[in-house]
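User: Working on a comparison across species. This one is MerR family transcriptional regulator from Pedobacter ginsengisoli. Can you predict its structure so I can line it up against the others?
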Amino acid sequence: MEGLIGIKAHTIRAWEIRYNLVPPKRTLTNIRYYDEEDLKSLLNIVTLNENGYKISKIAKMSKQQIFDLVTQLKADWHNDSVQILSLSNATIDYNEEAFSNTLAGCIEEMGLIQTMDLVLFPFMKKVGMLWQTGAIDPSHEHFASNLIRDRIIVEIDKVEKPHKDEPKRFLLFLPEAEMHEAGLLFARFLLKSCGQDTLYLGSGIPYADLKKIIAAYKPDYSFIVLTSLNLGKDINKIVGKVMDNLNVPLLVAGSLISEFDILVKDQLTPLKNVCDMVDFLEDL
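Assistant: Here's the predicted structure for MerR family transcriptional regulator from Pedobacter ginsengisoli:
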């Protein structure tokens, strides 16, 4: 719950006691819980609160008034917290049209780079946490991930690759047990925009195949992305396995890089955020 709406449980309880805002339901054994409609109501309330509305004022509004105000806020594509809310609500409802429209609007107004940095990466991190903790179903995570993946591919196809006299070669893949492609596809978008060459292999690449791929393609760099929370404790073990099968510099991006300490090694460059990725490519 806290991961989805960004408010501590004791704050939600205080709102409930003081203002009777979204009282929880209870199981037969008296355990508190919120259904999907409750989650959406809380998301709307938090969004108004983050945009300057006092809880005491929100508590006096009807559900329709709250909905109408949030709808007005959604017109501001540069309000990243509101757009993350829109994507969250669409995910809970499995509403493909609403999700796609929000994503398209953000990209049209801000471009893919800013949308990934300010909206999609924070949203995907939030959804991943909820999936891991059981707050939402795995199907919700797959729903959102696949729509994001499809949209990034569309944006890659739109890029007219600029001519570069001596482009670098990048091998892009996900190590075993990492299945989330959005970050890796975004790296492909950035590389194509910079005129670099890529071999994109996606997920499920066995470590044993890497040496053969390296020998055939002869990349200047390899590039992986680590985002799955269940990989966190083993992040250095995974990076080590990858590097044992490479003889080229390795770039590592993804949310886990900024959350867990990664051991410094020769030929290893951690890229902790979008700015790091963009700056590295611009310096090539």
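For your comparison, note: The first helix runs from residue 2 to 5.

User: Helpful, thanks.
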